[in-house]
Structure formats: structure tokens, C-alpha cells
């Protein structure tokens, strides 16, 4: 709060500039959280998909189990990458409903693994 006194001794209380800036930044953060920040979610999903696929590469040099025969690590990794790519593309026009749908999709892919 800023206080100023004029020459005729009138006291005026003005809004503090720092408080206004802080409230603006808090509002921006609140809006970002409510939007869901799908770009961050998408990047983490793409990285998780690449990690699943990279961990599956040594399976080519071992016994072929049912997991390898059905290609579970590869299509699961591609599922993560697809969900992440969609989340990154939807960053501009996204709602919390779409983000929760993508999280459900990713959770289902994770349970399958």
C-alpha cells in the first residue's frame, strides 16, 4: 500500500505496484494450472514412450517371449508418443477435460505395460 500526502494535507492511499504485479503473476499461474499445461504433459509422455522403446531394444537379443512376439513394448511406446504428440499439438486450444482424457489414455497404456 502506498500513501501520498498532498500540499493541502489530503492523504491518498494508492495501490502498491508490487502487490499488483504479484497478483497478476498469481493469476497467470492459476490460469496455467487450470489449463493443465498440456505441453509439459506431452513432452513427458513422448520421453516416456522413447524410454520404453529404448528399453525394449535389448529384447531382440534374448529369448522371444510372448511380450516380444506381440510387440507390447513397441506399440506401448508408440501409444505414449502418440498421446504426447497430441497433447503438444493441443497446447493452444486445450481444456482441462482434454488433458484428463489424455491422462486416462496414458494411464491405460501404462497399465498394459
Describe the structure.
- It holds the Pfam family CD20.
- It is found in: Membrane.
- It is a single chain.
- 69% of the residues lie in helices and 7% in strands.
- The chain is built from 5 helices and 2 strands.
- The chain has helices spanning 17-35, 38-56, 66-70, 72-89, 96-112; strands spanning 2-5, 11-14.
- The chain has a two-stranded antiparallel sheet with strand order 1-2.
- A hairpin with a 5-residue loop joins β1 (2-5) and β2 (11-14).
- The N and C termini lie far apart (56 Å).
- The mean pLDDT is 79.
List keywords for this structure.
mainly alpha; two-stranded antiparallel sheet; 5 helices; membrane; transmembrane; transmembrane helix; CD20-like
List the helices and strands and how they pair.
Blueprint: E1 2-5, E2 11-14, H1 17-35, H2 38-56, H3 66-70, H4 72-89, H5 96-112
Q: What's this model, at a glance?
A:
The protein has 113 residues and is mainly α. It has five helices and two strands. 16% of the residues are buried.
First-residue to last-residue Cα separation: 56 Å
How many beta-strand segments? Answer: 2
Strand order of the largest sheet: 1-2
Radius of gyration over C-alpha positions, nearest whole angstrom:
25 Å
What percent of residues adopt helix (DSSP H or I)?
A: 55-70%
Characterize the largest beta sheet: strand count, sense, and whether it forms a barrel: 2 strands, antiparallel
The overall pLDDT, averaged over residues, is 79
The parts where pLDDT drops under 50 for at least 5 residues are: none
- Helix segment tally: 5
Strand content: 5-15%
What is the 3D shape?
Answer: rod-shaped
Membrane topology: Multi-pass membrane protein
Subcellular location: Membrane
Keywords: Membrane, Transmembrane, Transmembrane helix
InterPro entries: CD20-like
Amino acid at each position: 500500500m502506498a500513501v501520498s500526502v498532498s500540499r493541502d494535507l489530503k492523504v491518498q492511499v494508492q495501490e502498491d505496484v508490487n502487490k499488483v504485479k504479484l497478483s497478476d503473476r498469481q493469476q497467470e499461474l492459476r490460469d496455467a494450472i487450470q489449463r493443465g499445461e498440456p505441453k509439459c504433459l506431452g513432452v513427458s509422455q513422448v520421453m516416456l514412450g522413447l524410454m520404453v522403446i529404448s528399453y525394449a531394444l535389448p529384447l531382440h537379443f534374448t529369448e522371444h517371449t510372448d511380450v516380444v512376439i506381440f510387440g507390447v513394448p513397441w506399440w506401448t511406446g508408440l501409444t505414449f508418443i502418440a498421446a504426447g504428440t497430441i497433447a503438444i499439438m493441443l497446447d493452444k486450444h486445450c481444456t482441462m477435460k482434454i488433458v484428463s482424457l489424455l491422462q486416462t489414455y496414458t494411464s491405460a497404456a501404462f497399465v498394459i505395460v
